[in-house]
Fold this protein.
Amino acid sequence: MSVALLSVAGVALDALLGEPKRNHPLVAFGRFAERIEQRLNAAGRGWRSHGVTAWFIAVVPLTLIATLLSWLPLIGWLVEVLALYCALGLRSLGEHVEPVAQALRSDNLDEARRRVGYLVSRQTSELDSTEVARAATESVLENGSDAVFAAIFWFVVLGAPGVVLYRLSNTLDAMWGYRNERFERFGWAAAKIDDLLNYIPARLVALTYALLGNTRLALRCWRTQAPKWDSPNAGPVMAAGAGALGVELGGPAIYHGELHERATLGEGVPADADAIDRGWQLVQRGVWLWLLILCLGTEFYA
C-alpha cells in the first residue's frame, strides 16, 4: 500500500475517532518516561550523559518494535496506519482551540482564560481578550507543526518507525526540555534531538502557511522576525503563520511567574476569535495540501 494512501487513512482515522479517550499509548509512555527520569535524574542531579541514556532507553526499543511490527505480512499496513493515527493530534487541536474562540465571542473571558490554559504553559489568569486570542493562535500554529505536520513528514520519510521515533522524542522534549534547575542538564539531549527532528518539517510548515495565506507578508516575517525568536523551529512557523494570517502575535508573556520579553511576530490587526478560527483553518488546509501533493506524487511516479 502506498505511503500516500496510508497517510490519508491515518488522517481520516484521526478525523473520525480523535485521540483515544482511554489507554492512549502516549499517556502510558509518559508514565514510563517519568519513572526513567526519577531513576536517572533524582533531585535534578542528572548530567547530560544521563539524559542521553534516558532518551535511548525510552525511545529506541519502542522504535525497533514498531519497525518489526510494520514488517509483518498481511497486517504491517495496519500497524503503519495505527502508528500515524496515534501520533496525530489534528482533531484534538481543533477540539481545544475552538472553545477558546467561542468563549471570546460570548464575552466569557474567564472561560476563555481557562480553556487557553489547557493549550499553553504561560500564566493565563490575568490575560485580556486579545492576549488570550494571541496565545491560542500561537498555539494552533505551533502545535499544528509539532503534532500534525511533523508527524506526517516522518511517516512519509520512514513509515511507522519514523513517526514513532518522532512522536516519542517530541513527547520527551515536552516533559524534559526545560531550561530550569531540574532539567537544564538532563533534558539537553531531548531538547536538541527534538530540534533536529523538527528542523526540516518546521520550515516546510512555514512555507505551507505562507503559500496558503498572505504569501509576501508571511515570507517577510519569516525572514526578519524568526531569527529573533528563542526556538529555532517555532520562530519560522509562528512568524510565517502570523504573517499569513495578517495578525500580530508574540510579545511579552508571563511563564511560571516570570515575565518573558518575546519578539513581536506577524503584522496587522490584533489577534481575536476570528484569528483563532483562521489559524485552525490554515492548519486544516495545509494538511489537505500535503495529502494532495502526496497523492499526486504517488500517481506521477507510479
Remarks:
- The chain has a mean pLDDT of 94.
- The chain has eleven helices and five strands.
- The beta strands are 247-250, 253-255, 258-260, 264-266, 269-270.
